Amino acid sequence: GALAVDGRNGMGKTTLCNAFMGLVPTARGSIHAGGVRIHGLEPNRVVAHGLAYVPQGRRVWASLSVDEHLRLAARMRKAGSGEARGGEAAWDVERIYDTFPRLKERRRNGGAQLSGGEQQMLAIGRALMTNPRLLILDEATEGLAPIIREEIWACIGRLKAEGEAILVIDKNVSALLDLADRHYVVEKGRVVWQGDTAAFRADAGVIDRYLHV
User: Fold this and answer.
1) What's the rounded Cα separation, in Å, for the pair 60 and 69?
2) Which of 68, 109, 131, 189 is deepest in the core (most CB within 10 A)?
3) Residues 192-196: what's their mean pLDDT?
4) Are 136 and 4 in contact (CB under 8 A)?
């Protein structure tokens, strides 16, 4: 399924993702994945416990080819958890290329030679190569042309249909309504509303109060 975290800029959404991944310290509370406490672990150990993060801004390496990005992620997986979870087929390079045919066409190109949309596809593919229990997407369509945004949303929808668990943050509320099963709205670091998509659609005041600028 897919869960959306909604809120205006600066309300703590990216900080929440960074806390999940062990990239920032947490003041209180605890974080568990698959029944295991991951609070305080180094980011590579968080990945080993099944979380994969596609950060805002994509962050692909300019000098590495598409193929090298994916194979490096596969080596990181083997150094951590190593196997697919829940009896599902493991993600490998060819499965990534089946999901993103454009990446297969550009497999020998370096990160700096890719368009913004291709870089985003690569960032998602790189995360999937770790066989995550939870794929976290932070502003996956930011800065992309409308036609490319639609392509990325379609891909995320296919991943959900294939059984991937996804946490997604994006400014496109209509796209989140189409994708997500449940929504959490944050305001200044606190959850101020939560519910399923039907309830979110029905409560127009939530969008007016917490999401409109």
Assistant:
1) 8
2) 131
3) 95
4) no
**Summary mean pLDDT of the chain:** 89
Long-range contacts of range 17-23, CB-CB < 8 Å, 24 or more positions apart?
17/53, 17/55, 17/136, 17/138, 17/167, 17/169, 20/46, 20/51, 20/53, 20/136, 21/46, 21/47, 21/51, 21/53, 21/136, 22/46
Q: Within a 10 A sphere around the Cβ of 34, how many other Cβ atoms?
A: 12
* 67 in Cβ contact with 93 (< 8 Å): yes
10 Å Cβ neighbour count for 92? 16
Q: Regarding predicted confidence, which is higher, 136 or 173?
A: 136
For 154-181, how does the pLDDT look when each residue is reduced to its tens digit (9 = 90+)? 999 999 999 999 999 998 889 999 999 9
User: pLDDT digits over 5-38, tens only?
Assistant: 999 888 899 999 999 999 988 878 889 888 899 9
